[in-house]
Amino acid sequence: MSDNRASLEKSIRLYLAPHLREDGFRGSGTTYCRITDKFLFVYNVQGSMGGGRFYVNLGVHPRGMPTAIGRDPDPKTMKEHFCDLRCRMTEFNTEDQWWSHDGTQDSIDNAVRQSAAVYLAIARPLFAEVASPESPLLTATLEQIDAGQILLLGKSCNKQYTALKLARIRYSIGDREMARIFANYGLTQYLDDNRQPFRRDLEALLTMLDTPVSPIQHLESHQ
Question: Which domain holds residue 117?
Answer without folding.
Answer: 3-131
